[in-house]
Automatic annotation (TrEMBL):
Coiled-coil ranges per UniProt: none
Class of the enzyme per the UniProt entry, highest EC level: hydrolase
Entry protein name: Probable 2-phosphosulfolactate phosphatase
Keywords of this entry: Hydrolase, Magnesium
Catalytic activity as recorded in UniProt: (2R)-O-phospho-3-sulfolactate + H2O = (2R)-3-sulfolactate + phosphate
Similarity field: Belongs to the ComB family.
Pfam families for the chain: 2-ph_phosp
Cofactor: Mg(2+)
Species: Carboxylicivirga linearis
Enzyme Commission (EC) number: 3.1.3.71
């Protein structure tokens, strides 16, 4: 198995993902929201790039949909919910379609759709995702980043996933960027949040009083659920 890490959504190209298994990570907070929504029995998640796209799809799909997402970590006008995983309880999302647009995570997904297989991961479902990946050959972990800039939290999760794969497999071949993510995680694995809390986006959310979200998003292996892109939307992998 060969593992690579891409540091931002903007760096994802067809050439980097074609013929490979990709995993999109956006810890704060898009993939944490998606993991929670599928865990709580959302029927599917449709990632889109703009609020206008979201409104258009909702008008076609009807009332059994939820509009979720953010711009600059704030609720989008006219949307039902923002980008907090704690909003997507079973009472809210069960048997509903989530249409979501975020600043970074949905862009990373859209840029990676030419992958052979495409999964969505967070700390919340890292081990479940790893269990799905063990038979893959070339894996690309895509850190969504923040507006084209490297983020600590996404790379810490990439390193966590690599460490879990290393524990299950022999002969794992890491690129330099994968080695860097693994080393970052190993340097602080007993207290990941301590390092993540120094990051820019963590502190943006803290300043907006999303403390409960921050706690939730760094909870490892809370859910035994795998999220997969099926060519049209994100669903629970069978």
């Amino acid at each position: 198995m060969k593992i690579d890490v891409i540091n931002t959504a903007q760096e994802v190209t067809s050439k980097k993902v074609k013929g490979k298994t990709s995993v999109v990570i956006d810890i704060l907070r898009a993939t944490s929201v998606m993991t929670t929504a599928i865990q709580n029995n959302a029927t599917q998640i449709i990632p889109v790039l703009t609020p206008e796209d979201a409104f258009q799809i909702k008008s076609k799909k009807g009332n059994n949909t939820i509009l979720g997402g953010e711009r600059n970590a704030e609720l989008i006008e006219g949307f039902d919910y923002g980008n907090s995983p704690l909003s997507y309880t079973k009472e809210v999302i069960e048997n509903k379609c989530l249409i979501i647009t975020t600043t970074n995570g949905t862009l990373a997904i859209k840029n990676a759709v030419e992958s052979d297989e495409l999964f969505i991961a967070s700390f919340l479902n890292a081990q479940a995702t790893v269990n799905q990946l063990i038979n893959s050959n070339d894996i690309v972990l895509i850190c969504s980043g923040n507006n084209g800039v490297y983020t600590l939290e996404d790379n810490l999760c990439a390193g966590f996933i690599i460490s879990l794969l290393n524990a299950k497999l022999e002969n794992v071949d890491l690129t330099d960027s994968a080695i860097a993510s693994l080393s970052l995680y190993q340097s602080t694995k007993t207290n990941v949040v301590k390092l993540a809390s120094k990051g820019y986006h963590y502190n943006v959310l803290k300043s907006k009083q999303f403390d409960d979200d921050l706690t939730e998003c760094f909870t490892p292996n809370k859910y035994d659920v795998v999220l997969k892109w099926n060519g049209e939307s994100i669903i629970k992998a069978v």
